[in-house]
Amino acid sequence: MVAIRGSIKKIEFTVSYPDGTEKVSIMENCEGVDGILFSELLMTDDMRAQFTVSNDWCDNPAMQIVRGQEIQNVCKIAQCKINK
Predict the structure, then answer these.
(1) Could you tell me which of 72, 74, 59, 66 has the C-alpha nearest to residue 23?
(2) How far apart are CA 50 and CA 71, in angstroms?
(3) Which of 19, 59, 64, 56 has the alpha carbon at shortest distance from 40?
(4) Is residue 64 exposed (0-12), middle (13-18) or buried (19+ Cβ within 10 Å)?
(5) d(Cα 67, Cα 72) in Å, to the nearest integer?
(6) Can you give the residue ranges of every domain in the chain?
(7) 79 vs 49, higher pLDDT
(8) Which of 3, 34, 59, 82 has its CA 20 to 30 A from that of 16?
């Protein structure tokens, strides 16, 4: 199959948390990513339930990564290791 557009190889996210902390998350494996969601606007009810799990912001991810039927909740403050 001939490619009809470029492919994303690496994405760097800078996440700013409510306490003022900023951390960097680097996604090096972008293959198969169908979507990256930062808000509940386009999420299904099931996705929303996984995205906002607590009233404590430390427990909630900053984004969801969608690969087919797989939903990955990422960038809770404890998950992002690189301080900016």
Answers:
(1) 74
(2) 9
(3) 64
(4) buried
(5) 8
(6) 32-83
(7) 49
(8) 34
